[in-house]
């Protein structure tokens, strides 16, 4: 945090590093690069590695000191992390993961083969192993998978003074601790004792008298995006995680929630373009293969649209102006539909759109679609009519435009809700289905009307 | 936080509220609705209002108790907030904003007309007014605009024991305080004293001996997205904001940074579809007008593509199969390009892509585009060749496909960097320019090659 503009400085560092690594590869003088790299914060090293092309990244990774490796891995994105770990043997992984927090360690372990997990677990002391194994038993995308087990618990019947003396004796508090967790003798979660209260309230009071009771324990099975909603809504820094019986399992801290929020929004943007990758320097063939699938699906829908056009070959043969104009109707439908579907998909992700207000939203989007359809239909009709000196062509393209924009609005509003009900991610499937609909309807309406009225 | 699934429950509440409000509008019995609404957390009320259609939203807003209004406004999205405030007079706004934190208040004030700001400021005591005025002097999207002025400062030369007694006497600590700020007598920021250290270290030590010195003050002019990077990278809960001379101005807390992260990613998704709105129930005409602009721009580019097709009218007249097949080339180029541009735009936003690694990234994307171009060109060539029983048509569409996918990859990788250098938001302008390029190149390559080789 010493730089005034981290963005620019990072770009500068990437450039220096890339050049230095290239030179070093030839000359073998890596000492300076090593020094520079290891003086950075692990998070910054992770970002740098993500910004480097594959060969330089591998080389830079080898230069990083062993005791930093674990932290760097925990800050790196999933894809880059897996790539880096593939180069490490079990021994190195054990060394790298020593001293990591449970949640970071669990994150890393989840990407490893079973035999390596076993070796890493074997190297830990019993208590740590127990914690990690229990955290591993929850899916990655639930509160249980996100939690850390480094809680400090206190009993409700002791005085604040006792807690204060305990903490001073203990000598250390885990990072991101804003409150201690109050539990019964049977480890049942009952409330939170904030550090602020501990510092300001009368030390003679008992924990029970001071503790916050209105923060409920988060069930371990709660999906992470709902955990994020809770944190945002109640401005939480940390919150307890409980099992079905209300027993304390661990705690979730805001830094992990920030990652969830970042990933969730990121996932929407990427999915809508059919992307799963985050590593900008993923190997070319791997990248091409993953994107190729998406292109293949779109090719199939493009052929479907072509087939629709093919139905009207005879019409096109007679009036070639139709071929010139037809992409306009399809393209405008696609744009209008993608606006509606983006609004609805993000509204659903933020919990603003659901079955309860779907009907009203569809009505509103239909009205917007109709209004814009009408407006731009007039413009298109005028331009097309003048261009081809034929008022009937203008009228037909205008009518097709209104039809397609209304269809686009309804499809854009309804598709995400229908797709989610089918258990599929609307951000991924929605856009393909939508453009298929707007293409097919666009060509069908325009060429169909033309066949009826112009021939 | 008492519900196990907030999403579903919220949907339930929206449904209950909408129905209850509709009934109440007819019968006039609003008591139950009022009770239900005011029992919720202000953040939850804000989300509910955002989920309600305009008429119900206005009605529900009138039912909310005056002392909750300020908090609800501070949790609502910009657009809905402005809409709600438009219904309030200056007096109501003064009442609503009483007791808000500086940062929330500043957020709200920024959307109000000058005369109302003046009235609100006039109603505050001098110290608060001074704080708000100084916060208002920084742009909304900088550290200064994000900060809160509710800092607790301590001097470096006192002992922890003195600080502990001071806090106990003070009796209250502002929310989201994880550390006190250490300043010189001249108010120069020098370090942080964490509550954790205060609780665990020897009380006889001085603040200077215990304080954290490696968190630099954030310059008030730093853009908010860079503030977010700093928080994410160093897992900060709160951080001090300083002016150019290093004097303490205030502090930024993680809850506001979470909003920045959420908004930033949201902004990318929305901009790429040409959306500025977040209010799903914005008035139809306002919504249609804003989206209409985007549709108009796209219509202009669609006409450009049509004009390109028009250049080949004579060719199309002779071989109508070309009209049937031509949308495939344009569409595949659009899809491939949008994958690359999405990857680059998000990479830029996350600081992974910049001038330093641009050349390497463009090379990689070109390779991916060429590989996929080749693969799908073969598939398209086979299908098209068989469909129209003409190997030459197959060869031509295959060649056009390779050309367009390579162009799409280079344009997708380069456009965001060029557009940002021009000072324009790549997420907004990038996609329009890109599809214009892929459409024009797609039609030009396919119909051009056909004209050369088939006529």
Number of strands of chain A: 6
Distance between the termini of chain A: 72 Å
What is the CATH topology of the largest domain in chain A?
Answer: Tetracycline Repressor, domain 2
The pair of chains with the biggest contact is:
A-B, 134 and 133 residues
Which residues of chain A sit in consecutive blocks of at least 5 with pLDDT less than 50?
1-7
Radius of gyration of chain A from CA coordinates? 29 Å
Tally of DSSP helical segments of chain A: 22
User: How much helical structure, as a percent, in the residues of chain A?
Assistant: 55-70%
* Global structural class of chain A: mainly alpha
Range of strand content of chain A: 5-15%
Order of helices and strands of chain A: HHHHHHHHHHHEHEEHHEHEEHHHHHHH
Oligomer: homodimer
CATH architectural grouping of the largest domain in chain A: Orthogonal Bundle
Largest sheet of chain A: 3 strands, mixed
Instruction: Describe the strand arrangement of the main beta sheet of chain A, using strand numbers.
Output: 1-2-3
CATH class of the largest domain in chain A: Mainly Alpha
The tally of domains of chain A stands at 3
Overall pLDDT score of chain A: 88
The 3D shape of chain A can be described as globular
CATH superfamily of the largest domain in chain A: SLC41 divalent cation transporters, integral membrane domain
């Amino acid at each position: 945090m010493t730089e005034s503009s981290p963005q620019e400085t990072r770009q500068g560092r990437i450039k220096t590093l890339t050049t230095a690594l290239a030179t070093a590869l030839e000359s073998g003088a890596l000492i300076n690069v090593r020094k520079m790299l290891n003086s950075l914060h692990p998070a910054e090293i992770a970002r740098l590695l993500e910004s480097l092309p594959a060969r330089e990244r591998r080389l830079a990774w080898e230069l990083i000191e062993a005791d930093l490796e674990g932290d760097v891995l925990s800050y790196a994105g999933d894809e880059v992390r897996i790539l880096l770990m593939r180069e490490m043997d079990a021994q190195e992984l054990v060394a790298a993961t020593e001293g990591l927090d449970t949640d970071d360690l669990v994150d890393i372990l989840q990407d490893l083969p079973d035999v390596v997990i076993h070796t890493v677990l074997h190297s830990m002391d019993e208590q740590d192993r127990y914690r990690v194994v229990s955290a591993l038993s929850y899916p990655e995308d639930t509160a249980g998978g996100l939690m850390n087990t480094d809680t400090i618990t206190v009993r409700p019947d002791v005085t604040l003074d006792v807690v204060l003396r305990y903490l001073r004796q203990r000598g250390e508090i885990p990072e991101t601790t804003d409150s201690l967790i109050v539990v019964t003798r049977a480890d049942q979660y009952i409330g939170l004792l904030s550090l602020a209260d501990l510092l300001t309230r009368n030390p003679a009071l008992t924990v029970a008298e001071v503790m916050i009771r209105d923060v409920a324990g988060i069930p371990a099975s709660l999906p992470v995006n709902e955990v994020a909603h809770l944190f945002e809504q109640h401005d939480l820094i940390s919150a307890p995680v409980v099992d079905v019986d209300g027993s304390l399992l661990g705690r979730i801290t805001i830094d992990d929630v920030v990652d969830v929020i970042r990933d969730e929004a990121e996932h929407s943007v990427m999915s809508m373009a059919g992307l799963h990758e985050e590593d900008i320097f993923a190997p070319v063939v791997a990248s091409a293969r993953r994107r190729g699938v998406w292109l293949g699906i779109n090719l199939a829908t493009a052929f479907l649209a072509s087939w629709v056009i093919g139905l009207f070959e005879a019409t096109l043969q007679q009036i070639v102006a139709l071929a010139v104009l037809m992409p306009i109707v399809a393209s405008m439908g696609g744009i209008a539909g993608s606006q509606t579907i983006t609004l609805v998909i993000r509204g659903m992700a933020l919990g603003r759109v659901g079955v309860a207000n779907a009907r009203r939203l569809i009505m509103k989007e239909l009205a917007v679609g109709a209004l814009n359809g009408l407006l731009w239909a007039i413009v298109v009709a005028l331009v097309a009519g003048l261009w081809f000196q034929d008022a009937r062509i203008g009228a037909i393209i205008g009518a097709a435009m209104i039809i397609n924009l209304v269809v686009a609005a309804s499809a854009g509003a309804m598709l995400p809700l229908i797709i989610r009900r089918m258990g599929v991610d609307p951000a991924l499937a929605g856009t393909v289905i939508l453009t298929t609909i707007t293409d097919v309807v666009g060509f069908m309406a325009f060429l169909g009307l033309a066949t009826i009225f112009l021939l």
